[in-house]
Amino acid sequence: MNFARAYSLHHGGAEWERRDLSDWLMELFEVPAITIGSGCTGQIRDHLKDELTRAGWSYNVRVDQGYDLTVTGMYRDLAFQIQTGNISRAMYDLLKLQHLWNERKIEAAALAVPTKEAADKINSNLAHVDRVWGELQLFDRIITMPMLLVSFE
Q1: pLDDT 10s digits, 72-93
Q2: Regarding the domain delimited by 3-152, which CATH topology (the fold level of the hierarchy) does it fall under?
């Protein structure tokens, strides 16, 4: 698995850089031992859980105590979400991250998705960076938080 590219929405890249976590975030996806293909999502999630926990992040954090909704990780005023499933789940992830921002629980977020080519290798109809970035452009007045969209392959 390799980092492919990051896209910044509403100055999200600047927020991650200001905290000296931009390079760290990209390096999370530099794992040659993980081969992108059918059945790799468990390995990706296990790797991220280990790395986030090692870096002091809380893992699988509830968005609100009254609901069983979680984001992959939170650290201070940042949230991180990985999506290797259906495209509809990525839009749902954006709503959870936006809610955290609206509630002033975070100041910036990152969502990680595969490239289109990597998504095609994993399964069909998966979230991928081309589609998510395009839809973020369409909904940039609805999704208003500073965020990075990170892609991997």
Answers
A1: 999 999 999 999 999 999 999 9
A2: Restriction Endonuclease (3.40.91)
